[in-house]
Fold this sequence. Notes:
This protein is mainly beta.
Amino acid sequence: MGSIVEQTGVTSETQIRRILEKEGYFNIFVWSDTAGTHYAEHTHPHHEVRWIVSGSLQIIENGVTLDLLPGDRMESEANIPHSAYVPEDVRYICGSK
């Protein structure tokens, strides 16, 4: 199974953190990248969530590009190879499970 993207419409950092804590996520933190940032293909050892607060982020997984915009929530299973590109400055909340 790959990543799942949900368009939540929620962009409040306080609300997002509250939701993720209630769902059992740990290591919840805010991350920001500037336009043009690229992450080479990598994996994460845990189930991960990325929830976009502002800007945009592209995740490339199995040759498919997922365009994430404010309010979008992406969940990824552990050990799924993916890369990322930041088309415009982005701020998002990360968490592990």
